[in-house]
Design a protein that fits this description.
This is DNA polymerase III beta sliding clamp central domain-containing protein. InterPro entries: DNA_clamp_sf. The chain has two domains: 128 residues, Roll (DNA Polymerase III, Chain A, domain 2); 72 residues, no CATH class. 18% of the residues lie in helices and 31% in strands. The chain has five helices and ten strands. The protein has a seven-stranded antiparallel beta sheet. Strands 5-6-7 form a three-stranded antiparallel beta sheet, covered by helices on one side.
Length: 217
C-alpha cells in the first residue's frame, strides 16, 4: 500500500504540501493518497476503527523510510511462521499521530512509525512533525473520472507511470481496469483511470489517475 501510493508523491520542493502522502482514517477504513499534479494514486484498507475521522500529511521521505524498513525483519518472521513459506513476512507497523497543539498555529502534529520486531528490543522507530498545509482535493477528480464519457481514440501514457501503477496491486494476479475519459475539450483525451479489485472482483481497493501525453500533430 505504501509503495504503491508513495510512487506518485511529488519530489518538487517548491510545493511541499504535495511532497507528502495524505493519511485519512475514518470509521472502518484507512486511505492513503498522493499526487504530483500529473497523476493521483490512492489505496484503501479496512480497519477496526470507530473514532472520529483523522487526517494528516506524512512527508515523502518519511514514507520512503517506512517502505524500506517494513521488510527489515522478514527473515525473522519467516523463521517463526507456523507454515513455510510464511504467507506474509512484512512486519506489523504501529502508526501513531499526536494531534497539533491548539495553542500553536504552526503545529501540524507529530507522526510516528514503529516497525515491530519479533524479538524484544529490536524494533525500528522514526517520528517527525506532520507537514502543515491543505492537501488538494484530488479524490474529487477520481470521482469525476468514474462518471466521465469514454475517449474513443488513441492516446499515450508514460511508461514510468504505468510501471508505478503496478505497485498498487496486492498480488501479481490483480490487474487494473482501465477507463479513458474525454476532457472538457472533447477533441482531446482526458485523464485515464485505472482501478484494482482483488482477483478482478469485489470492491475497489486502489485507483490511479494518469494524465496522458497529448498526441500533437
Amino acid at each position: 500500500m505504501v509503495a504503491g501510493v508513495v510512487a506518485a508523491a511529488s519530489s518538487d520542493d517548491i510545493t511541499p504540501v504535495i511532497c507528502t502522502v495524505q493519511w485519512m482514517l475514518e470509521p472502518g477504513e484507512l486511505r492513503l493518497v498522493a499526487t504530483d499534479r500529473y497523476r493521483v494514486h490512492t489505496a484503501v484498507v479496512p480497519v477496526d476503527y470507530v473514532g472520529e475521522p483523522v487526517s494528516f500529511l506524512a512527508s515523502r521521505e518519511l514514507m520512503i523510510w517506512l517502505q524500506k524498513n517494513a521488510t527489515t525483519f522478514e527473515r525473522l518472521y519467516r523463521n517463526r511462521a507456523p507454515v513455510s513459506p510464511a504467507p506474509s513476512a512484512t512486519a506489523p507497523v504501529v502508526v501513531s499521530f499526536t494531534s497539533p497543539s491548539p495553542d500553536s498555529p504552526t503545529d501540524a502534529g507529530t507522526i510516528g512509525f514503529t516497525v515491530m520486531s519479533p524479538e524484544p528490543g529490536g524494533s525500528l522507530s522514526r517520528s517527525e512533525a506532520a507537514v502543515r498545509g491543505n492537501f488538494p482535493p484530488v479524490l474529487r477528480l477520481i470521482e469525476d473520472a468514474r462518471k466521465a464519457e469514454f475517449y474513443p481514440s488513441e492516446f499515450v501514457l508514460k511508461t514510468k507511470f504505468m510501471t508505478d501503477v503496478g505497485k498498487l496491486a496486492q498480488s501479481p494476479t490483480d490487474e487494473p481496469r482501465l477507463r479513458s475519459t474525454k476532457s472538457e475539450a472533447t477533441s482531446k483525451p482526458g485523464v485515464v483511470l485505472l482501478s484494482f479489485r482483488s482477483n478482478g472482483v469485489g470492491d475497489v481497493y486502489a485507483e490511479a489517475l494518469l494524465q496522458p501525453n497529448l498526441l500533437l500533430r
